[in-house]
Fold each of these.
Amino acid sequence: MALPPSQWIIKLAACLFFTGVGCNSVEKKIYVHLNYTFPCVRLLNATHQIGCQSSLSGNVGVLHELESEENLDWVLTSGPNPPYMVILESRLFTRSIMMKLKEGSGRVAGVVVVAPNTNPPEGFSPHTACPNDNSGVYTENYDPTLAHCNATVWNPLGNGLAYEEFDFPIFSVKDDNDTRVIRQCYQDHNRRVNGSNPQFPLCAMQLRSSMSAVTNTATCKRRNDINFSLTPDRVCDELGDFNIWASSRPMNTTTKGHKEFESVVIAAARMDSRSFFFDIAPGAESTASGIVTLLAAAHALRRATQEAPPNRTILYTFFQGETFDYIGSSRMVYDMENNQFPLDLDNIHSVLEVSQVGLHSDSKLWLHSDPVSRKNSSVKEEVEKLVNGLKSASAGLNVSVDEPDVSQPLPPSSFQRFLLARPIPGVVIGNYRSSFTNRYYESMYDNAEYLNVSYPENMTSEEQLEHFPETVKTLTEVATLVARALYVQAGGNETQLANITADPQIVNQMLYSFLVRANNSWLQQLVPTDFTNHLADRPTNFYVGVIQYFSEPTTLVQYMLANMTGSVVNVTQEDCQKQREDKDDDQSKHLYTYMWVQGAAPPNSTEREGFCVRSTVHRSIAVSPAFELHEYTTSNYSTWTESVWKPITGRIFLVASHDLEMLTLGVGITVLLTSLVLTYVISSKADILFSSGREPTSATY
Ligand SMILES: *[C@@H]1O[C@H](CO)[C@@H](O)[C@H](O)[C@H]1NC(C)=O
Ligand SMILES: *[C@@H]1O[C@H](CO)[C@@H](O)[C@H](O)[C@H]1NC(C)=O
Ligand SMILES: *[C@@H]1O[C@H](CO)[C@@H](O)[C@H](O)[C@H]1NC(C)=O
Ligand SMILES: *[C@@H]1O[C@H](CO)[C@@H](O)[C@H](O)[C@H]1NC(C)=O
Ligand SMILES: *[C@@H]1O[C@H](CO)[C@@H](O)[C@H](O)[C@H]1NC(C)=O
Ligand SMILES: *[C@@H]1O[C@H](CO)[C@@H](O)[C@H](O)[C@H]1NC(C)=O
Ligand SMILES: *[C@@H]1O[C@H](CO)[C@@H](O)[C@H](O)[C@H]1NC(C)=O
Ligand SMILES: *[C@@H]1O[C@H](CO)[C@@H](O)[C@H](O)[C@H]1NC(C)=O
Ligand SMILES: *[C@@H]1O[C@H](CO)[C@@H](O)[C@H](O)[C@H]1NC(C)=O
Ligand SMILES: *[C@@H]1O[C@H](CO)[C@@H](O)[C@H](O)[C@H]1NC(C)=O
Ligand SMILES: *[C@@H]1O[C@H](CO)[C@@H](O)[C@H](O)[C@H]1NC(C)=O
Ligand SMILES: *[C@@H]1O[C@H](CO)[C@@H](O)[C@H](O)[C@H]1NC(C)=O
């Protein structure tokens, strides 16, 4: 049959207008979809919106590669073809440049940041200089001289970019094939040659990250409710996840509220991190170092707490969403105050929090405490005991500990939310004295490379699990220190201390799982079968996101903690899943959690041999009390929500000038009309025109 003429005529017409470019190459260059892009997304709190967004159909701009800050002029004033889509090397992704682009947003369609393959030596932190200011304990009411980082600025490199609002999309691309395609397109079409302006067609890019929510949390919550009556579409969701905790001694978790005769030492770490771009929050030092240390300490304490249980219970707690105004810790405190937790605040003896502890050149740890609550003599006494416990635990280890200036406040920490409720003795342990040594706090560069965790390339995953980077040794020492101090703090017998040592093998396996890939043979044994395909072949993303059951860091910590503190029990899979030790057992479920994990395959088989792990590991919800109370404008609790978004895409293509586009459209329409008329004429006269070539449909000869 004849090809409909309209298609190839239009194609030919389009080709003619892209003068100088062969038809085939235009075809190829139109719409190259970018595969590995990371967007910045929109978040909202009680009063502000932050992050980025595009128009509904995506922002389109002519590509411009920025070479230096002076070069901004082309984008902001002199360039003849705005709006521009600006490509930046990461060294130009600075506050100064980004704020200029933000001001000139009429001429800026969006920004693409090319992430480097090695970390910038000068440091970079898009977080604020005073993290979680306003949501910690240091307000004017508590002590005016300590409020707003007056005494010490914790994150001096923080430029606050991650808390700015941009009304154009900002994407990050890896320095790989995508970037090569973008740069090539720019070089071929948009570069100024000998000072003359580039000629059409120009290379353009479209970025789409359209966000539904606007203004603030109260507004988007109201829209959610309106929308809900029409369609089940939401506009925004509260940030949240689960906290993970386990007790060194079983307790009845069915009964909530105060427990008589129970006194607990909370051992805490945070479970989340952030970066400017969604989906890449590796949090190696800011988060993973603390998690790994506390998990390894829990493992080191397993035998001692079972064989020579100390007087007090140790409560290992991992808080989620702490980046966003302490979501997890504020919820746990709230639940304790409202008898929604198996313990209450009266049960808390003291707190030891592990902050950033990745050690670099000088192996020194700092013990931070709160100068205000220490004015109370009984708190002071307990803090001193805890500090001395840590100091004597460091004897014989390769780490030294020291205290900063006595008047210095606590660094940003979950412990602050407990202090907001009441004066509780506690210490925060970190590798910094009065400002973070972490040069990449809450950025995409806080990664394995920064913690010096690297494995020879030619090794298999299996061999890498057996290869210990230097960091493993120091973190093992820190974990031993924390474990011994916790044991003494809980009232344990000091003769046991020599028997409490962290295992470097375990530390290495955990570091590898968080910083390199979770999908490895060790972690596969620790999780249930239905979680296996959630194990990723990349570093863990510690961004808290929206509540979901199998969120990455939470679930990993949950299964690791069960393995570190629990024991294997000989129980059938059925009983295990029904949370009991046998058919007649109706009490165990109050005391323990049972998890059936897939285990390893024995050498002569491919079938894994699952087993049942009994532990005291629990999840507790980590959603801000503000949403429980429907108080979306409160300043007492986190109000952060994340906008819902349409599919996020990026692509590049060539554009003709606006005039040319109009002309092309005009010609296209003319051609279309002509072809319609032609088609009509041809088909109405088809009998005459095609009579010779036609097969008779029902001819009989
Ligand atoms: C900051 O601290 C100093 C003393 O440490 C005090 O004199 C000053 O008033 C404080 N500033 C504010 C704004 O509280
Ligand atoms: C909301 O976030 C903005 C930007 O970080 C901040 O300035 C503001 O204080 C926050 N509002 C509340 C109520 O915390
Ligand atoms: C990048 O391109 C090269 C050659 O064009 C190809 O061999 C390689 O697989 C590509 N890499 C990725 C990640 O697509
Ligand atoms: C993106 O992926 C598609 C399909 O996998 C591939 O055809 C295309 O070349 C990729 N784009 C780039 C820029 O590598
Ligand atoms: C735990 O508490 C529940 C509810 O109060 C009670 O029914 C159960 O017997 C208790 N179990 C144990 C082992 O104390
Ligand atoms: C710890 O043990 C001592 C005696 O060994 C006892 O007097 C004290 O009450 C116990 N404390 C707790 C919290 O159980
Ligand atoms: C990896 O390469 C190094 C040298 O580059 C070599 O010494 C080592 O034996 C290799 N390891 C394996 C497992 O091939
Ligand atoms: C500590 O343990 C040793 C030996 O295991 C024992 O002799 C001693 O009485 C214990 N001390 C306390 C305070 O329980
Ligand atoms: C260490 O543990 C082992 C095994 O449980 C025990 O035999 C030994 O006495 C312990 N050592 C100390 C110093 O308590
Ligand atoms: C922990 O995992 C290891 C596998 O690496 C396994 O041999 C051990 O039995 C597990 N222990 C518990 C209590 O789950
Ligand atoms: C586990 O329990 C079953 C039945 O209760 C028993 O036959 C088996 O020997 C036990 N296995 C171990 C390792 O104790
Ligand atoms: C695998 O080997 C173990 C001991 O090495 C033996 O008990 C078991 O029966 C073997 N299993 C299979 C399926 O051959």
Amino acid sequence: MTDGPSYGFDTLQIHAGARPDPATGARQVPIYQTTAYVFRDADHAAALFNLQEVGYIYSRLTNPTVAALQERMATLEGGAGAVCCSSGHAAQIMALFPLMGPGKNIVASTRLYGGTITQFSQTIKRFGWSATFVDFDDLDAVKAAIDDDTRAVFCESIANPGGYITDLDAISAISDDAGIPLIVDNTSATPYLCRPIEHGATLVVHSMTKYLTGNGTVTGGVVVDSGKFDWSANDKFPSLSEPEPAYHGLKFHETFGPLAFTFHGIAIGLRDLGMTLNPQAAHYTLMGIETLSLRMQKHVENAMEVASWLEAHDAVEAVTYAGLPSSPYNDRVARICPKGAGGLFTVRLKGGYDACVKFVDSLEIFSHVANLGDTRSLVIHSASTTHRQLTPEQQEAAGAGPSVVRISIGIEDPADLIADLNQALNASK
Ligand SMILES: *Cc1c(COP(=O)(O)O)cnc(C)c1O
């Protein structure tokens, strides 16, 4: 299918990137379970290896099933290209890798998925990279944290664990002024609820493990490039603007223009870091995305109903859902997430840590797991699990203090979810 601008989201989520298989006519995207691809002849092989012709060499770099998913994600996000990776965390490293070098830093929001805070505050130090964490509602603090060595600004559109909404327009104005890219983790919103590139994001990353696949079957990630950033405007991004010794001095930006980041991601990132998505996982994710809009509508509807009910319960101190009129983030919903505030929020219990533990253990429909964005409703006590590695100050700054439970609302019957929450809250007192 040619992706005309007239096609709506519901059409593109099924058709973008998929065409009947040229060999068999298969209508669903086949799982190309192959490691390598036969070259037509030696000249063909040479052209592929020199990046003079686009094609398939070896599945660490490219695979037709994965390529269909890359095209679908680029289309849904309104980007120029995309690179799939083996997990959301792999996608974050793949997004940073071409931008960073020893001594370089990123400025990141304090409100992030717990694993991302750990990746950025600990693990990336081994590459000589670092992160400065600031409150992204404090725009002056974001500006002040950027220095000459900053190579990216990083935040989530709907941020963990509270479902807070980041003012992407205001943040991209700051990164634009500084001449550095804005990377937005759009996992909790999905392109159905939020399109970060329309708010100035340079790169969009996803854990496809969550809503995109939708049913908790595989891990996967993707980096979508807007194709809009001028990597050659200054000397900050030599991997993209300067000659690449591993490809006979080829300059990615000069040669590939708006696809420079995507080609670099495949030709250098996947080739040498090897964080490749396998075709079976790509197939599950393609299947999931076909119903993304239907599921997201139901997640939003259910979250609104459950969050409103929870807010009125006498065991509950506060609910953070941005869809509620009481949320300080409510006025950002229409602008940043016009189709709803997602399905993720936290609830703070009056009974503190002990009540949270009893509550989580008493739930029957809700599963206590370290995951979100499943068809099933999920809960987690962040302070004792996903945010356990953080200091108490980091936990509070991230919205994951000891009396807070994170809830990911599924697509079950909302009355059943409310009944389950009610019995568990009563048992927690
Ligand atoms: C889950 C998640 C990640 C990490 O993704 P994995 O697929 O588990 O590696 C990153 N960011 C957000 C917002 C997530 O929810």
